[in-house]
Design brief:
Rossmann fold, 2 domains, 12 strands
């Protein structure tokens, strides 16, 4: 039996188990199984690896995309640059980390961009945010990271510093925080939504609910919106390719 799984905490919001279980059934992969492995702490990964001898691959989600790196044997170049891993290939005891969030995000975002989208606000500073930052640098899009915590870095600001003038300039806004994710759908990142207009594009990495309050408030102001479901599908299939590649 080939076992694949997801590590994170909590995992109630995850679609991965259903997605891969349905994929295995549809493709008649009777020797494959996908499980959820909620870890209270990343240090529990060592025991998990020892107990799951048939484990071939893991996806990693909040809050372990960064803290899992020291437990890996090696990290693929792009993931090392990003500083976050969401896909782990396990082969002959060797754990190799990859970042497929960047691949999924870029593929999902590109069709939505136009000449107006030269500056972006990235809400959140965790592992997913790092993948988004990597993609925006690659695309030549200037950005600021918005964090709840104070920082001395010039490209990190706090939510209360976002004003009308900034909203006029930064027409791409990407939510990489868990704010608004199931089961906390009644919350939204604290930005001045009244200054959003039809020139804005709001992208939320959250996919459950399908329309977060962040997206709903942006749409009400006339903005174009997109959730993270397509990104997740692209990323999941890329994980599958990596887990089963014979030359990686």
């Amino acid at each position: 039996m080939n076992v694949y799984g997801l590590i994170g905490n909590p995992l109630e919001h995850s679609f991965s188990q259903q997605y891969f279980t349905e994929k295995f059934e549809k493709e008649n992969l009777e020797d494959c199984r996908f499980e959820l492995f909620p870890l209270k702490d990343i240090t529990e990964l060592t025991a998990l690896l020892s107990s799951q001898v048939e484990l071939k691959g893991l996806a990693a989600t909040i809050p372990y995309k960064e803290s899992v790196i020291p437990f890996l044997t090696t990290v693929e170049k792009e993931a090392a640059v990003i500083g976050a891993v969401n896909c782990i290939k396990i082969s002959a005891g060797i754990l190799t980390g990859y970042n497929t969030d960047s691949f999924g995000f870029e593929r999902s975002l590109l069709p939505l961009l136009d000449s107006r989208h030269t500056k972006a606000l990235i809400l959140g500073s965790g592992g997913s945010s790092k993948a988004v930052q990597y993609v925006l640098r690659k695309l030549g899009i200037e950005f600021l990271v918005v964090s709840r915590a104070a920082s001395t870095k010039k490209d990190i600001i706090q939510y209360d510093t976002i004003d009308e003038e900034m909203m006029k300039q930064y027409l791409l806004i990407i939510n990489c925080s868990p704010v608004g994710m199931f089961p906390n759908e009644n919350y939204e990142p604290h930005i001045p939504y009244q200054h959003i207009n039809k020139n804005h594009l709001l992208f939320d990495l959250i996919y459950r609910p399908a329309e977060t309050k962040f997206l709903a408030l942006g749409k009400k102001q006339g903005a174009a919106t997109k959730n993270g479901y397509e990104m997740l599908l692209i990323q999941a299939e890329e994980n599958w390719k990596i887990w089963n590649a014979t030359n990686s």
